[in-house]
């Protein structure tokens, strides 16, 4: 006798297989296979290139592992970025339709590093093609209201010089923090770079900013200039209770996301929850300890929680070291950066090692 109780059949968007979680190069690749930058041919050098301080930072295992959660901590304290995600991001649109799943949220974060890697490590042609793609993607991302609670802030436009600059600077600054505060170098504990190398890093970052709309007069050329820039735009950093309110509907977009994710939960998404335990749990804890105190405050961290975070970084230093070892780094490089980035990083490390040897 056939039972009338049918098993629930999940849609393909809800089911998460191991292959879907891992993804193929298509998930990250934009406009062809990326080509690594070289130093011998100036036209092929790319944005940074072998021997640069930027590649010292970018290619470190700690940055490979912790880059994404650290970037989101700082970038999501910049109010125009939050407004753009709130109003225009595909995962927000899915949430409005009730179609957002936990995998969609993970996929959004998963693609972050791997899509940017060709600009950081690729030759000039690769970097330009990917940058132009991102510019086209962000053409419609603009709005009249950043925060309904503080209308005096005005509006935002993703492709404006201001927003483009801060998108690039928040990416690059967090990588420096991770390198300096979490990155073991041989048997040495994590430590700050000398001031001259920090200034050189910021000057190199300016070249990355130039891939996007920018105001040349505002691009910082030293750490001191970057600090002044943060002061100038201080009112655009921080979190408020009203920032999550969608101006057109009055809804809270965080609640919309949660409701949709809860509705579309499925046992197969345990694989996603396992990955998010690292990205949004353990790694975010360490990344929060790596960013500046001002960033932690802007993120809404209370003084009590900040003490816990900083204590955890000290007490768990052996674990932070372990997470940078080759097998674990390789796992997260493939999972979060994608197969093209695996090849780019391997090639870039060889070229960078040779360039540093020549410098010495």
TrEMBL record:
Organism, as annotated: Thalassospira profundimaris
High-level lineage: Bacteria, Pseudomonadati, Pseudomonadota, Alphaproteobacteria, Rhodospirillales
UniProt feature coiled coil, ranges: none
Boundaries of every ER-bound oxygenase mpaB/mpaB'/Rubber oxygenase catalytic domain copy: 55-244
GO molecular function, one term: oxidoreductase activity
The protein's name: ER-bound oxygenase mpaB/mpaB'/Rubber oxygenase catalytic domain-containing protein
Alphabetized Pfam families for the sequence: MPAB_Lcp_cat (PF09995)
């Amino acid at each position: 006798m056939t039972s009338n109780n049918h098993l629930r059949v999940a849609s393909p968007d809800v089911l998460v297989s191991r292959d879907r979680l891992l993804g193929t190069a298509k998930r990250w690749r934009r406009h062809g296979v990326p080509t690594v930058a070289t130093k011998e041919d100036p036209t092929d050098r790319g944005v940074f290139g072998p021997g640069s301080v930027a590649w010292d930072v970018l290619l470190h295992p700690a940055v490979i592992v912790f880059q994404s959660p650290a970037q989101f901590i700082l970038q999501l304290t910049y109010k125009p970025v939050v407004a753009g995600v709130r109003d225009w991001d595909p995962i927000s649109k899915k949430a409005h339709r009730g179609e957002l799943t936990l995998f969609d949220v993970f996929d959004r974060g998963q693609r972050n590093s791997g899509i940017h890697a060709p600009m950081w490590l690729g030759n000039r042609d690769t970097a330009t093609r990917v940058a132009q793609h991102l510019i086209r993607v962000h053409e419609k991302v603009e709005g009249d209201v950043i925060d309904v609670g503080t209308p005096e802030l005005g509006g935002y436009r993703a492709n404006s010089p201001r927003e483009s600059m801060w998108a690039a600077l928040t990416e690059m600054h967090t990588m420096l923090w991770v390198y300096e505060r979490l990155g073991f170098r041989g048997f040495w504990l994590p430590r700050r770079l000398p001031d001259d190398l920090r200034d050189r890093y910021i000057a190199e970052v300016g070249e990355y900013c130039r891939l996007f709309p920018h105001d040349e007069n505002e691009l910082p050329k030293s750490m001191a200039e970057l600090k002044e820039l943060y002061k100038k735009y201080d009112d655009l950093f921080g979190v408020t209770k009203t920032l999550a309110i969608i101006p057109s509907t009055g809804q809270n977009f965080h609640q919309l996301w949660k409701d949709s994710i809860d509705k579309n939960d499925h046992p197969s998404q345990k694989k996603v929850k396992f990955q998010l335990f690292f990205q949004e749990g353990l790694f975010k804890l360490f990344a929060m300890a790596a960013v500046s105190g001002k960033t932690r405050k802007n993120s809404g961290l209370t003084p009590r929680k900040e003490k816990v975070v900083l204590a955890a970084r000290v007490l768990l230093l052996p674990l932070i070291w372990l997470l940078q070892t080759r097998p674990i780094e390789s796992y997260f490089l493939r999972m979060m950066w994608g197969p093209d980035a695996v090849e780019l990083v391997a090639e870039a490390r060889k070229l960078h090692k040779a360039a540093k040897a020549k410098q010495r």
